[in-house]
Design brief:
single chain; 32% helix; Adenylosuccinate Synthetase, Chain A, domain 3; 12 helices; Adenylosuccinate Synthetase, subunit A, domain 2; 10-stranded mixed beta sheet; 20 strands
Amino acid sequence: MKRLAIVGSQWGDEGKGKVVNYFSEKFEWVVRFSGGANAGHTIYYKGKKYVNHLLPSINPGNYSKGFLGAGMVIDLEQLIKELKVMEEDFPGISNRFYIDLEAFIVLPWHKEEDELLESMRREPIGTTKRGIGPAYTDKVSREGIKLYHIFDDKLLKQRLEDIFYLKNNIYSGRLKSNAKDVYNYLLKQREELKNLKVNYESAIDMSKVFRNSTVLFEGAQGVLLDLDFGTYPFVTSAACMAHGVSSVGFSTFELDEVYGVLKAYTTRVGSGPFPTEIKGELGEKIAKLGNEFGATTGRARSVGWLDLPALRYAKIRSGLTGFVITKADILNGFDEIKVCTGYEINGEIKEIPSSSYDFSKAKPVYETLPGWKDTNDVNFLKYMAFIEEKTGVKIHYISYGPKTEEMCSKNDLIMNM
């Protein structure tokens, strides 16, 4: 494969960072094409844990490079923190990262807006308060700052003054940030990035480079949190599906494969519909076994049984051609495993939601399958075969632990049974 996209098949938190990191050794470029610092991707390298929110999940030990695309909104302060952590163990690694000049920047007042807006809602959405929504809002309303603005002092100052004039009127002087402070803040971040020797390139200039090398596209969150097709309004503000590669100048038709990452069960963090949620002691037990706490916020995730209608929906929406299953080991030792095979909606059984609205009305229809002792148990193989049969998507790889190397192909698993 020359071009592979990896996206979340559920509500995010499926273990994409580890999966991307596993595949990255086979690719020259790892490209983040959407999202911001509200997405945490955890990787392990030589026994050490790294939690990155913006950096593409490159393999630190090889030649792979990372590209942050124009579909992202980038918190420069957070990016610098992540680079400095990586620099401690891999001196010079910052020079292996490139940022698209068209990418938008998360500004200090975006985080203030995020908190203000969430506090004013009758029903909070459950944002991470990282400023992602307000940054994307400014992008759409043409009130944002692109990366290239920070290299033109006069233009940057003028734009910040114009934007702040509007925001100060909207929020009646409640913002603590002002244009002068944000200007000086951005100049400081620019200098730090210069010292780290980060590269700046547009996707236009990188087009030939990408098409003459191997590229792994790293998605953020999951299909069910996609702005257009997720469980709106309880979604993120970015594209979470493979079509987001268009922000880096690619078409989905140019992709060789689109792998969807799914847990052997389902989780979601924050508010919004969750048809297969397991309430009470059992849900708490699985959450504890799976260490289901957000890498970005530390918030506890709700846990549910595997949701096949949601996976079928993700398959169609994002053009999934294969699955990578994670955290199957968390369900080791369970006598029985439930799987949602359909939704009852207004008295009708549906295998695939017609729209994201269906998730809020769905009553899950379950089948019960035998559990497994460990992932070498034949019952786990039957579980995967059941998923493949019911979704029409093959499972290609299995993750059975948090470390990058704790993955294998399904073929290898079968051969070793």
